[in-house]
Design goal:
single chain, 11 helices, alpha+beta, 407 residues, binds adenosine monophosphate
Length: 407
């Protein structure tokens, strides 16, 4: 379980980035996206922790920031009707409870005491996860992202997302898009997405407006409304007769600028594709769907990856990077210039990866300018180190535009 930072800055949730499978049958595994409840955003007290661990359930635990020893953490564990609080000492970049066994990070520590009580009152059995409750509400209020449900009118369903419906809403007279979720199990992944979005601001990224966490009715992520829907649907429905060469190049540049921003800020999108780009009323393409977006240092499992869009090294070795996003950007360019066709047409899905790994590259879409096809092919360089950066890609696309090489 490497890769987690040893200490999370206060005010952040600690998102378990790895699936952790219990070691014994009775273990309740916690999975990627679960929030090991570092609810310590306000340095919660002993008493608050005890309330969060109520009703009693032996093995239920959370980690909070220590009130007495700032910078240290406290592990709070429910055991036979009582809550025990263990100070986690942080020294020389290592964490320890008993100053005998040391850990690189909290996940390792938690994993150790899940396997064996090793002096604690009980083995850790179940993390108290954020369930879209008070803790999450606090988190977003404190960071200024909490909106009031009273100001929001939900109007109609405009899309189906992975987590639930996407609705058109009215927030204080402005049209907004609202992702709604009622199911606690996916709430954490949803919160992770919102939490990434609070850190990002660019005119070609779909802007987060705020978050509503309601105890009863669930969770809502409110974003700017993109009237023309997803880029892939837009390309398919308008087609060649409506969308000219300048329009296609403009979409390509819009997305490239967003990606240059993510590159500069060390975020890796991991799911760049025309279905995850939305088009505004005034035809600006904006990158959306930060469900898989992570800071560049993290890793993730490769269970549900969109094979045709994902770079070979990311599929093979989980090596996600800005350069794997560059690969996906090449596929997205191909989608744009083919007016929303599904990549690798006529190749069965199972044959795509073996062929790509041998160096196969898609042909240029019909009518695609040769200069743009050259850009795509550079994105599909097998060695990620030899792919261009988004900064270079933007320069190339700007050059194509200014010299009118795309006509
Ligand atoms: P998603 O969960 O982000 O994949 O969204 C599912 C669908 O909902 C998209 O394909 C869009 O059609 C629609 N949608 C999502 N976000 C917005 C938005 N901000 N504005 C308009 N439509 C959206």
């Amino acid at each position: 379980m490497s890769g987690m930072q040893a200490v999370w800055p206060s005010g952040t949730e600690c998102i378990a980035k790895y699936n952790f499978h219990g070691t014994a049958e009775q273990d309740l595994p916690f999975s990627k996206g679960d929030v090991l409840t570092i609810v310590a955003v306000t340095k919660i007290t002993r008493e608050q922790a005890e309330r969060l661990l109520y009703p009693p359930e032996t093995g239920l635990f959370l980690v909070r920031e220590s009130t007495n020893y700032p910078g240290d953490y406290t592990l709070c564990v429910s055991c036979e009707g009582k809550v025990e609080h263990y100070r986690i000492i942080y020294s020389s970049s290592k964490l320890s409870i008993d100053e005998e066994v040391y850990f690189e990070n909290l996940m390792q520590l938690v994993e150790h005491y899940t396997t064996d009580a090793d002096g604690l009152c009980t083995r850790l059995i179940k993390p108290k996860v954020m369930e879209g409750t008070v803790a999450a509400q606090d988190e977003f209020s404190r960071s200024g992202w909490a909106l009031n449900m009273k100001d929001l009118k939900l109007l109609q369903i405009i899309g189906k997302g992975e987590f639930g419906d996407v609705m058109l809403g009215d927030y204080r007279g402005n049209k907004v898009a609202v992702k709604c979720i009622k199911n606690d199990a996916t709430a954490q992944a949803f919160l992770a997405e919102a939490s990434v979005m609070t850190q990002l601001r660019h005119s070609n990224l779909v802007q987060l407006l705020g978050v509503i966490v309601e105890e009863k009715s669930g969770l809502y992520i409110v974003t700017e409304y993109m009237a023309k829907g997803s880029l892939v649907d837009y390309l398919r429905s308008r087609g060649r007769s409506v969308l000219g060469a300048d329009c296609l190049l403009k979409f390509s540049l819009d997305v490239c600028e967003a990606m240059e921003y993510l590159e500069a800020n060390n975020f890796v999108h991991r799911d760049l594709a025309a279905r995850n780009v939305l088009v505004s009323e005034d035809n600006i393409a904006k990158v959306s769907d930060f469900g898989l977006t992570k800071e560049a240092s993290s890793t993730q499992d490769t269970g549900k990856l969109p094979v045709k869009w994902t770079a070979p090294e990311a599929l093979r070795e989980k090596k996600f990077s800005t350069k794997s996003d560059v690969w996906s950007f090449g596929i997205l360019l191909w989608e744009i210039y083919s007016f929303g066709r599904v990549p690798y047409p006529r190749i069965p899905l199972k044959d795509v990866v073996p062929r790509v790994e041998k160096g196969y590259k898609m042909d240029a879409p019909d009518g695609c300018p040769a200069v743009v096809y050259e850009v795509m092919k550079k994105c599909w360089t097998l060695d990620p180190g030899h792919r261009p950066s988004f900064h270079q890609l933007r320069e190339q696309l700007v050059h194509i535009k200014e010299k009118e090489l795309y006509l």
